[in-house]
Amino acid sequence: MKTLKAFFALVLICSTVALPLRAQQKSSDKQPPPQKQSATPPPVVESMPVATPVSTIALKESVTYTEKRDYLLGPSDLLELKVFNDPQFNSDLEVDPDGNIVVPFVDQPIRAQCRNVNAVRKDVTTALSRFLKEPRVYMRIKEQNSHKPVLVYGAVRTFTKSDMRRPVRLLELISNSGGVTEQQSGTIQIMHTEPPQCPDIEPVEAAPVETASDALGLPFALYKVDDLRQGKPEANPYLRPGDIVYVAEASPIYVVGNVAQPANLYLREGTTLTRVLAQVGGAKDANEEKVRIYRKKPNAPQEVLTVNYKAIKQGKEPDPVLQPYDIIEVPKAGQFRPEKIAQMLVGIGMQSATSIGTMAPMRIIY
Asked: What are the pLDDT digits (tens) for 298-340?
């Protein structure tokens, strides 16, 4: 009996161990057999051109835009050059009048004018590659001397001196000066003191509205303040280093005589007689006809112009355009005009009657 129990126990233990081993064997039988590696290597496939990602295109455009806004080198600019582990090349390089720099131990000068410092650094690295293996070059602008400041003065809030590191338009400079004042005459003069350094790179300048010359015979371009306010492109040109911008100040004119408020005014371009008289409240006598304009003329006696103000208001005569330093006189109404004579006689009669009544003795009648 004991032998039979031992036999069944042994069978139970064997079955318990055999089942997991069988399941593991079945799972291993289901795995695919390993592939045999061929003796010959696989053929080489040439790489196909890959389209440029959008981010790379955007980066290139941004770099180009940055390069256009970078400081462009010119004569008298000073560059600092340093080469890692090779101090014999370290030096300060000044851009010569021809627009080049001379690097130590390099025979040929390197072009620097109208280029940014990164482009010059690449050329310097290439030149030093003849002496050094993979030179590590550092270069920066130490002094910026080629770009002369732009001056803005005249009828502006603040006189400014601007050091332009990028292309700048006229409106931006006027805004930096606080805008024009009430003393402006309506015109802006721009005088170029330096020739363009980079005519092939700098923005194309719009044709000026008008050109003229001052008392010294120096040419300048003339622009109108009203056109600049209206946003006309031709009135908002690019400026270049060294330009002088003068917002012309208005010349004075004087209004005296029989007006509501005599005043000294600033003459705007194209200002007429009726506009000026309207600014001072008009003539006190609405029926006044004659207005005198005293005009100063160079090397000649003063000219006196008499105009019919009443006819001008009615559109029968042209409205005269005033000139600097004109004196406008509205004379008092003539005392011997017919209506004035009648008024004078009535006044005299009333005054005489009053005087006689006052001077006569008083009598009492009972």
From this structure: 788 888 989 888 888 888 899 999 988 899 998 876 544 555 5
- For residue 295, list its beta bridge partners: 303
- In the chain, the amino acid numbered 150 is V
Q: Which of 147, 157, 100, 103 lies closest to 125 in space, CA to CA?
A: 103
Contact (CB, 8 A) for 323 and 295: yes
3-state secondary structure of 350: helix
Q: Are 111 and 100 in contact (CB under 8 A)?
A: yes
Count CB atoms within 10 A of the CB of residue 115. Answer: 21
Distance CA 248, CA 237 (A): 17
How far is Cα 217 from Cα 220, in angstroms, rounded to an integer? 9
Asked if residues 293 and 327 have their Cβ atoms less than 8 Å apart, the reply is yes
pTM of this prediction? 0.59
